[in-house]
Request: fold
Amino acid sequence: MTDPSITNVDVEREHSFDGITEFDNHLPNWWLWSFYLACIFSVFYWGAYHITGFAALPTEVYEADQAALAAQSTDADDETLRALLADPNYIASGKKIFDINCASCHRNDGGGMPGLGPNLTDKFWLHGGEPASIYTTVTKGVIEKGMVAWESQLGASKCRKATVYVMSLRNKNVANGREAQGEPYAGQ
Amino acid sequence: MNETTSLSKTRIQYDDGVVRGFVFWSIAWGLIGMLVGVLAALQLSSAYFNFDLPWLTFSRIRPLHTNAVIFALVGNMMFAGVYYSTQRLLKTRMASDLLSKIHLWGWQLIIVGAAITLPLGITQSKEYAELEWFLDIPVALVWVVFAWNFFWTIKRRNERNLYVAIWFYISTIITIAVLYIVNNLALPVTGTKSYGIFAGAQDALTQWWYGHNAVAFFLTTPILGIMYYFLPKAAGRPVYSYRLSIIHFWALVFIYIWAGPHHLLYTALPDWAQSLGMLFSLMLWAPSWGGMLNGLLTLRGAWHKVRTDPVLKFFVAGVTFYGMATFEGPLLSIKSVNALGHYTDWIIGHVHSGALGWNGFMAAGMFYWMVPRLFGTQLWSRTLADWHFWIGTFGILLYVVAMWVSGISQGLLWAEMEDGGLKYTNAAWAEMLEKSRIMYMMRTVGGALFVVGWVMMVVNLWKTMRSGNKVDGEADVVVMKPEPAAASTGKLVFGTPFVMTVLGLLIAYMFAGGGLWGGVMGFVLLVGFCVAVAVQVKRAAESKFRWHDVIERRPLAFTVLVVLAVVAGGVVELVPGIVLQKNVPLTTSGAYAVAPYTPLELEGRDIYVSEGCYVCHSQMIRPFREEKMRYGDPSRIEESMWDHPFQWGSKRTGPDLAREGLSGNNASWHYLHMIDPRSVRPKSNMPSYHWLADEDVYVDGTPDKIKAMKALGVPYDKARIAGAIVEYREQAAKIVADLAVDGHEIESDRKLVALIAYLMRLGKNELGAQVVDRR
Reply:
């Protein structure tokens, strides 16, 4: 139990408080140094972040990251989306995304829920039935009607999967689906 | 009596009756407060454990749990320890039995008031400062009674020097008074409702300056004082190091105050304040461990007693948990660690290792030591106390480990990416929650085990009390002659430590505020200063701190120095916020870019506050890629500038709501979600707030609320106040109509309508290109 840094071990002070006495031992060196180092680190940290601007503050890091992110973007045109409709695995991965995120308003089978989401299994479309229009509705949302702009949370790739799955629901006309809304769309 | 030395000996009796009172109430309230905690924990794994009662719902009883544990359990325990040890360390009875009694019973009445009002939703929504204005006033008054009695007792002491425990008590009494009063400054609107005078970022900073230092000066310093009395007593060993006491006491008192902003890292708080919070937290680590070391090293030569004595077992474990929690604290204050841990269960685990491990065990140790002495008997059963210790320890470990696992998982899951998007969107929030559910159960078991241990203590102490009779301690004391103090004044003011501190603060100020050149100059000076301090510490170590010996004899000087040390950090951090309060972007026409709430939204906000939504939902988006994707743009400081009180929150059991109005969830969605959350989110653990669809807002009172807001500086004009009721009902009618389209019938004055209006407004602060940055 002896610390080599303790030179004057257990010198008792003369005073006693209600029977409690005190030694006056040296402060352990490792303890002192952990304190000094924290203070020294703090001085350098402050200098680096708040005086010289050498290191980037959280908002600066964030803005750089957002700029890098904006540089990469994907588009989805009608042709690409129709081509993807041929891939059952792609549709299956779209279904997973749909079940977690979309089903609470559009129902598990896409039949829609009163007051929330419209029926996706008929041929009527409120915001355009072309593949690219559906994609836009998914990514940008229709905020005033309660449709979430999913691109920010899901990212472009997952939105594309969800779109293709929604395209696959078209004209299935599930039982007890919501009433028809919007304009009919005849194509794929 | 001997005339020549003018020394008189006298026999005194201590007032131990008040100590017994505080012990009783600490144990009783503690049991209730912890049972409420278990009930709250159950609701996290299953929302049905509120038994469909508003006043048992998580968001209302979580504040009850925290307040009960802090102010009822630890508060009463602290007062018991302070009254017991202060009388003995100062060799005098408390100055006034009447003041002691007022303190004892006044405090219990306040607790009863809290236990009634918090479940009713009467709250200020500031964490650990939830009590409304009509309870804050009695708290302040009782605290003044305590302070008065305490300092009066010091004045009448028969012991020349103040022992280290008393230093800690002084710092507690002074600092808590300052913190509590400043943080609770408010403008009452009705008998049970007030608006705090601070708003937004300024309110956030004030609240966490308070919140952090309530932990420091309510849960830490008084308990360290208690440790310095009871631990050497129980161990029968001298305190390890007097100079360590001095160094860690002053370092703790000075540094603690600055660390508050570590609760607000990555928020809209200015960067300089965030960095101060982080750095002072790091510097706080060693001073905190100083207390642990002095406690543990005092046990050298007495470790064999730890094996057999339950009191020492609790003290050793308590001090060790203190060391663990005060290491974890600085760790969590490092920005990049905080990015992972903040808003998660990790923080809950962290506070419980402090509250259960440090406070709970120090309390138990003290009670096991004190109760047999207060009743002139022996502890009824050592075996039962040992069982309490082991079951309690196991409970804490289970609790803390569960929260680590759950917390770190949450931090990782929230940020997890897949295929260029979030793996779990907000609609899939409950998928992430599912993963914590087993940990929530484990935590409930851990907490319940701690309560089982506490019940064992209740039985043990009850049997102990029954086996003895109330005894008040007595002692022969030598009546002290007043000290001729004048001679030491010069020594005090021109003593090296005092001069060095003033100089150091000046240099630090230059360094921090003087631009690049000031920075370089300040840096050189600061390095020199640090070297000088190190030399001083070394030299002081040999000269046995004669300077400190002087102030120990002079309570007034000691108290003034404590005040200076404590106030320094508060002034530097809070004053710029108050002065520059409205220094936020404006539109080119000179108007504030953020519009105040409509009357309906304001009432909705008050419901949000009253129900305690902030307990599980933050309103502060951090500047991270994943948060931008999940919630939208990072929150800006001006967006909450009219928020009395701020609602930034500290925990995300549910998602952030800062931009809920932009999420796409419409009125019908909110209606369904509030009445039955699981109708739209099947796995959610949010309670149903269906009563909001049955209760009415008192709309006739709305103009008074707007008037109060105007008095606090929110830009409403007289016409707005006069037309508030009409405006309220117009906006409500629109929401009612929207809901009716989807088949949801509701009357326009219902609370739910106002809450929906507020939720749909969140984040809609239109800041166009015409905004001018005044900073």
Observations:
- Confidence is low (pLDDT under 50) at residues 1-7 of chain A.
- The helical segments of chain A are 29-51, 58-71, 78-84, 88-101, 103-106, 131-140, 151-169.
- The first strand of chain A starts at residue 12 and ends at 17.
